[in-house]
Amino acid sequence: MNTVKFLKEFLAESREHIEKLNRALIALEKNPGDQENINDLFRSAHTLKGSSAMMGFTELSKRAHQMEDLLGKLRNKEVKLTKEVIDTLFASIDALGNAVEELMKKDAQNNPFLDSQEKQDRETEQTGIRLAKRPELARTPSSIRIESSRLDALLELVGEFLINKLKLSRLKQECEALNQPLTELDRLMQELQFQVMGMRMVPLEHICMQFPRMVRDLAARENKAVDFSMSGLDSELDRTILDKLGEPLVHLLRNAVDHGIEANEEREKLKKKAGSITLSAARERNKVLISVEDDGAGLDIEEIKRVAVEKGIITKEQLVKLPDEKVYQLPFNQRYSTSKKVTEISGRGVGLDAVKRAVESLSGKVVLDTKKGDGTKITIELPLTLAIVQCFLVAVGPSSYAIPMTNIVKIVETEENDIKTIEKQEVIIFEDQEIALFHLARLFEQPSETMKRSVAIVVDVRGECVGLLVDRIVGRQDVLIKPLDPSLRDIKGLSGATILGDGSTVLIIDTQTLLENGSSK
Hints:
The chain is an alpha+beta fold.
């Protein structure tokens, strides 16, 4: 048999069966009397055994056969469902998963099957907890595979379309006869853009299917009872975003198990023994909201304030006027950590800062809502795509720049006497707090207009508000992000470029790296 011809299809189907095995076994562990879950497990193991044998993968087929035999005894009530049996079945699934992952990396014809039983057992023992990996896209009905490079090329054409439409819009002011054709062109442009972006969208479920197993193993290691559920996984995001979202979600889930859910003995005093962790997603207009919520210990707002003052993040005087929603953002500061112990599960307490940076790199933001004794909810807000973004166009002297709106907290007009200098750092007052102010012209070493009134763009940089001074706001516009010219790629603070309707090129600012770099000078 030509295994190369059918290998990809076999691997895709095998991964689907392994995901099904994990889901069904987790459900069976919660409801031991559910015969249908045993039947589902048996069917998946049987199918995996047969397809592996057809492909010539004898060891994989043998392991699936062993699992099928045990499930058959469970189905016929020859064996009782004990914790030891559950653990044995999970170990078998891990061994099958390791074998399939190994095949993903090796060429089928040049590679003897590498998953001897001893190797599988050793890998499973060393791994312990199988962290969620970003799985390859599963084969779905009524779909075709398209190389991402082809979609990118099509998106480039959409960008050129957009640029030429803007050029025609400028001519429209001089010729009324262009009104109707331009209106129709605009409609077609929007439809084409919508269709192309839709081709890049992938359901959230493609990075979440291993989470139930991961949470189950984490809870078992911590000796905690946890009910985990997911909803809204049909919400779609650009694949570029989805590929980078797995690690932040893994960290939030690990943090919820380790720090959110209380120990069983503590919970039994006031709550039901099993803690609850929920991952949910929903689309709101042009963005997706993803939440990780637990009903655990929650955070004490007074403790947050105490730690923030102790770490030098904020002063007691500033805290007096700080609203609660702002206080709950303090744990995202890079200097904030309350962890008194280092655990294998959630590390050294720097997780929220790392999550925030990862999400902000995707032009998103993170919001924390918590109440002592009631639990914690962390919501990630993300754009549907990174290819086309809404920006403010700003002027600095003779130059223009684009700043993505997702990075902006507020825009405030500033006069000369509003700016003060404290310990060689310029500051302005924003919402009753002194915040650092940086001149965009100075950061890029460019001339600026001498103006009595200018504009401060307030952005959030790793949990702290920072002002970016520009001469004026030019306008707001949707822009297609293009890669930087190689000569500009080493300049800190730039994320790309775009072309305006008049043909001019405008650089797009990454406020996070720009201001982190500026503040370190």
